[in-house]
Amino acid sequence: MQRPDYESWNVQNESYILNAYMYQDWFTVKTAGKDAEGSFITLDRPLRFNVYSTSESGGATLMENTTVPAKVMPIEDPIHHVGIENLYITQPMANLDAAKGSSQTLHIRSRKLTTRSAVNNYGNMTPESAMHGILFKFARDSWVSGVHT
């Protein structure tokens, strides 16, 4: 099965492969219309990545018996100039004690696998429960500063 983007990213785990919108960015549409070749839009700046017209473009195989077309979505009343500063985020993991039969697995190099083992260990000991970042949805010109995890 051909999945050019996932193959270029060297995705090995099939469960990570979705028939979904893979790229998002925020543009201002300068012009829109139709011509002999079909519908078109002109954006305020160049794309930073290739945008296929559908999920089957670029040599990709049909997934989940569905073709997903690319789309442009208007964002009404976006939030401007919002930020998060000087924030500390931690993720307490209840009952995370592999020595006592927890359903979670600690991924550390230690014989004693307990929550105490996490002190001063800055590796990702439970990748399935990882925090991946901060998302501003429908916000422009925003910032994150001094955030620690």
Note the main attributes of this structure.
single chain, 149 residues, mainly beta, 3 domains, two-stranded parallel sheet, 6 strands, 3% helix
Task: Describe the protein's architecture and organization.
The protein is mainly β and 149 residues long. It folds into 3 domains: 74 residues, no CATH class; 35 residues, no CATH class; 38 residues, no CATH class. Helices cover 3% and strands 19% of the residues. The chain has 1 helix and 6 strands. It has a two-stranded antiparallel ribbon with strand order 1-2. Strands 3-5 form a two-stranded parallel sheet. The longest helix is centred in the N-terminal third of the chain and has 5 residues. The two termini are 38 Å apart. The relative contact order is 0.16. The mean pLDDT is 76.
Number of domains: 3
User: What integer is the average pLDDT?
Assistant: 76
**Major sheet:** 2 strands, antiparallel
DSSP helix count? 1
In short:
With 149 residues, the protein is mostly beta strands. The chain contains 1 helix and 6 strands.
